[in-house]
Amino acid sequence: MVEFIFSLILMVCLGAMLYVAVRALPRIEEYGEEADTKNFIERWAHSEIPEKIDAAFGNFLVKFLRRAKVVVLRIDNSIAKSLRKVKPQEHHANTNIDFKELSGQNMEDKEGDSSLKE
Description:
The chain is an all-alpha fold. The protein contains six helices and no strands. It has helices at 2-24, 32-36, 40-45, 49-86, 99-103, 105-117. The protein is elongated, with a radius of gyration of 39 Å. The mean pLDDT is 79.
């Protein structure tokens, strides 16, 4: 509960600071002279060049990631092939488990059959 009260007080204080800042904005005057004296970096940042660079980088990144995905999948396939070569082949001739034999019931029947044959 104490944590909730502190976070509530923090949010109210942040809201009050934001309200005071918004009320002070209309008093700030923009200087027309300052807009003309921008340096090279400010003019470059407000031009279309950064957006074009970002779009080109995005396209490059998409192509690179697609190609990297293909390379990773090829490596995965080659590793899987080598694992198949290394893995010993198991014979699955008798996949059914005889639970009677495991419990010993089948052994008693076999012993009884052998005594009948003699």
